Give the backbone structure.
Amino acid sequence: VRWWAVFLRTAFLAVSMSLFFSVLSFLPVAVAGAGLFTSPIFVLLFSLIFFGLRPGWRRILAVLIGSTGVFLILRPDNLDFNFLHFMPVLAGAFYALASITTRRLCADESPLALVMAYFVFLCIGGLIWAIIVSALFDGPFLPEAEFIFRRPVWTTIEVWLWVALMAIM
């Protein structure tokens, strides 16, 4: 119905997931997940800022209670807190933008159209990333980051069969 809205939602979601998955090899899963779970805070803030929606006290209380757990896990007062800890929080902000866009601009879209747009976007983005990595990067990296900069590797037919089975399931 609105291609531009679907594209915008898909871009927000793809950026969110890219930020989240790119830090998983550097941060504990609990910390990365806690950063992503800041999205309700951002939904509340963005709804207020962009749309002037005033949340009720129950929503504010629910977000505050949920956020307490997030901050206990993230521990921004910790001396080890660094730039990488902001990436999953930024992922939470983009996830909130995707959620708001879905609700406000893509309500008339079919779920199949939204999912297909997302996977096509990921396929094209992954192909572009693979081309860039193959062309520009060819050196030693941190062992934790090797999977991000590794050139494309073709796998066995057995792996493709398992992937196909999981996709069907």
Notes: Helices lie at 3-22, 29-36, 39-51, 57-74, 83-105, 111-136, 146-149, 157-168. Residues 111-136 form the longest helix (26 residues). The chain has a mean pLDDT of 85.
